[in-house]
Every structure is written in structure tokens, then in C-alpha cells.
Design brief:
Length: 101
């Protein structure tokens, strides 16, 4: 699916320079109240969610994920673009009910 989504390997991770921080955008906004509810219901590890600030941060496997109200997504600790796309596709499926059209 990432063929339709531009993924940028922005910079190496501070804690491990062999890994990268990937940036992209879902192309649509998110209802952050719904995102926070979904993450809580699924008991996603290391989750922090702020409806007011419009951001959620959580761990998904070895990745550290941040998603923003306007649809931006940052994934830390990716090995390459394909690894970033896998993470982003998984996040997209987790929060699919929270997308605004």
C-alpha cells in the first residue's frame, strides 16, 4: 500500500544510528478521541495520548510510533523504507475507525 504514500527516512535514530526515523502522512485527518480510545481498548504498550494536543505516541513491536491529528505519522527504529511501510500499514489498520473523510 505504501506505493501511494511517500515515506521519507528522515534521519538516523539517536540511540542507534543503524536505524532510522521515517516520516509520512495518511492523507486524511484523525479523530484523536477515537484514536486514544482504540489504543486504550487494545492495551497498546507505552501509549501516551493527548486529545488536546492532537498526538498519540506508542510502541508497536520494536517501533516507536507517533501519529498526529492531521494525519502525519513518524516511526522510529525502522531499518528501511519497506520496514517503515510495514509499520505504517499496521498502524493504519489499528486506527482505521478513527480516520476522518
Amino acid at each position: 500500500m505504501y506505493g501511494a504514500r511517500e515515506i521519507l527516512l528522515a534521519r538516523p535514530c539517536v540511540e542507534d544510528p543503524s536505524l532510522f526515523i521515517a516520516e509520512s502522512n495518511f492523507g486524511r485527518g484523525l479523530d484523536m478521541e477515537m484514536v486514544c480510545r482504540i489504543l486504550d481498548e487494545l492495551d497498546i504498550p507505552e501509549r501516551r495520548c493527548s486529545i488536546r494536543m492532537g498526538v498519540a505516541r506508542f510502541r508497536l513491536d520494536d517501533w516507536q510510533v507517533m501519529i498526529y491529528r492531521k494525519g502525519r505519522i513518524d516511526v522510529r527504529r525502522v531499518t528501511d523504507v519497506d520496514n517503515a511501510a510495514d509499520a505504517m500499514n499496521r498502524v493504519e489498520s489499528i486506527v482505521r475507525l478513527a480516520f476522518r473523510d
